[in-house]
Amino acid sequence: MLPSGMIENITRPTLLLDLKKMESNIDSMIEKADRLNVKLVPHFKTHQSKEVAQYFRKKGLRSITVSSVLMAEYFVKHGWQDITVAFPFNRLEVGVINGFISQGVNVKLLITDVDTVSFLGKELVGAVDLFIELDAGYHRSGVNTNHIDEIRAIASEMAKSDNTKFYGLYCHPGNTYHEDSIDRIKSLWRDAIEKVNEVRLNLTDLGKDVVIRMGDTPGCAVVEDMKGVDEIGPGNFVFYDLVMNYLNVCDESNIAVAVACPIVAKNDERKEIVIHGGAVHFSKDHLFDESEQKFFGEMVILQEDGWSNIVPGAKLVSISQEHGILSVSDRLFDTLKVGDVIGILPIHSCLTANLMNEYVTLSGQKFEHM
Amino acid sequence: MLPSGMIENITRPTLLLDLKKMESNIDSMIEKADRLNVKLVPHFKTHQSKEVAQYFRKKGLRSITVSSVLMAEYFVKHGWQDITVAFPFNRLEVGVINGFISQGVNVKLLITDVDTVSFLGKELVGAVDLFIELDAGYHRSGVNTNHIDEIRAIASEMAKSDNTKFYGLYCHPGNTYHEDSIDRIKSLWRDAIEKVNEVRLNLTDLGKDVVIRMGDTPGCAVVEDMKGVDEIGPGNFVFYDLVMNYLNVCDESNIAVAVACPIVAKNDERKEIVIHGGAVHFSKDHLFDESEQKFFGEMVILQEDGWSNIVPGAKLVSISQEHGILSVSDRLFDTLKVGDVIGILPIHSCLTANLMNEYVTLSGQKFEHM
Fold first, then answer.
1. ipTM of the assembly?
2. Which of the four, A92, A334, B106, B229, has the lowest number of CB atoms within 10 Å?
3. How confident is the model over B324-365, as pLDDT tens digits?
4. Which of A11, A90, A350 sits opposite B321 (nearest CB)?
């Protein structure tokens, strides 16, 4: 519950974190992973916070995923000892990885070419686990699942050094973010799992107990048949956001972060509200409504115990560096006053958290963002 | 000149700052303001850096503009004593303004309604200078220049307290950012200047020596006839960026910042290069090329003395949180290697600087971002 007077103390754009919602999101994913017998290796790129990380630690999780070596450094500093850097390994950062190895950290890296494996074979001071990143159709990074020869060449190269251990196959089917139904997300995942398992079958002579890890939140949240999957590494589920809500991957009540924004001006003619809340708070990610209008966030009303459901039709229709323009109904326009503080649910919680740099819980506690 | 080995030392996305270009941009704007007899009150929202600010101080400038009270706090801490907060004043932050007043800072605020003036009249502990923000057609914030009664009511309210001094009329014709020719930018500015001057004529009984300040970089950079303008407050010109280059407001050689990004993977089939450089480095601002393809940055080659011209056809075509996908010609594809570091000119330098949080000059010096 918001301690009495807490909203009154907000004077600037502030990233509110509803711990109850967050914990429930975390618990659901842990319960699901247990039920489906897959290992949850949560991605910490969404929250990037040592305090949020503690909620996973309390639940007994020790293996985590990050999206950069820099982020790995942050979590190593805060006591995490088993970290997957889920990004095609940047060989210029091998020195940091060697530092991790010297500290006894269990490091897992993503590989997409033979040369990087031979480079690691020469440069590493100790052993790391390697994933081959596979592309099952998203076409961002990873080796195409059809390129069996290339994949086999990578796995063979790993066998040449004790320090480059073939651990698994990693697939982030991020195209699920662009689907328009749960059924499509499920069928896309089914297709990806099949492709990755076919690859595994082709590698039985080169690696045993080769693990398959799937990466994206939409799939991890909605797929119930995880046959052929050993590990999952979703990240966004910890907070969710409007993208996930529009995909029907989460309910709006699952969204665990909102940005509190002061109202600084009203425009009678356009029924627009000017808030302090712009691109330096929300980034420029957007969605389109039914009439193909771009929007950058949706409004909620801040309450003692958090925030209301989304106010229908109250959307952030335009943002510049610090300004946000909220378009609202006539009725709502009349009730909102300059000096009020309203809430905005973000389009993309990862980017919003990255920009806001600090969370304030509903009890007023501050959580850091790396 | 890049000290020998400097590029070799870059292992992660790094915001490079070419001081020579920056100084030349600053010098040109100072020279222009002097020549046209307007006062330059540079906007510091683009760089947000105490070190960059020093270049203005060395040139004798003492009055600056910022876009939030938070940013004002940063520059007050670093010795700036005459600050315009160019954002509709957020009355929840009046306590900070009173702190500034107590420290002897000369504060200028933007006003868009009568109530905020009466609020300030009651709450301020000393005098501040007030601008009425006018909307001459951009339709973001500010009072419509046609609403003379409303504007007169605001100016009259200011007269009721010694602490709310009517200083001037502020206009940010940000619609210049969406124009497609220098002529259109000039005519839009001419129109805005006329409207704002008409307002001033209507206020002669309510304020004398009422100053007119114009805000945007495109206009300040290209307009040569500043009759009717007393002060200009551009910000982006200090670095410029691809938006300004596509508007023909600057040459690509004026762009003073580039993000150095390591190449981490190559995709032969798609002739795509995967770099470490994504939405957490560039934001999601984009432009469209001739064939209406969205892009998020353009590539340059890093050199001893900075960087090359834009490599034709080498564009950042897609970004996610940390990944950037660079589409390049076959010939360029063959010359680029995993482990190389290339440069990306940003679409929007303000948002990129805000995300990168630190500059590295070509001689390896670090400049902070607040």
1. 0.93
2. A334
3. 999 999 999 999 999 999 999 999 999 999 999 999 999 999
4. A350
Based on the number of CB atoms within 10 Å of its own CB, is A149 exposed (0-12), middle (13-18) or buried (19 or more)?
exposed
Where do the domains of chain A lie? 6-15+256-368, 19-239
Which residues in chain B are contacts of A322 at CB distance < 8 A? 45, 67-68, 87
Q: Which fold has domain B19-240?
A: TIM Barrel (3.20.20)
pLDDT band at B179, cuts 50/70/90? confident
Transcribe A145-164 into DSSP letters: TT-HHHHHHHHHHHTT-TTE
DSSP state of B97: H
Tens digit of each residue's pLDDT (9 = 90 or more) over B51-75:
999 999 999 999 999 999 999 999 9
Residues A256, A362: Cα–Cα separation, whole Å? 11
Which of chain B's residues have a Cβ under 8 Å away from the Cβ of A68?
12, 276, 322
What's the gap between Cα A257 and its chain centre? 13
Of residues B70, B89, B265, nearest to A141 (C-beta) = B265
Contacts of A114 by beta carbon, 8 Å cutoff, 6+ apart? A150, A153, A154, A157
Q: Do A265 and B325 touch (CB under 8 A)?
A: no
> Could you say which of A69, A174, A280 has the minimum Cβ distance to residue B354?
A280
Report the gap between the CA of A88 and the closest CA in chain B (Å).
Answer: 6
A90 Cα to chain B: minimum distance (Å): 5
Question: Using one digit for the tens of pLDDT, what is the confidence trace for A183-223?
Answer: 999 999 999 999 999 999 999 999 989 999 998 899 999 99
pTM equals 0.95
Question: Domain A6-15+256-368: what homologous superfamily?
Answer: D-serine dehydratase-like domain (2.40.37.20)
Q: Is 3.20.20.10 the CATH number for A19-239?
A: yes
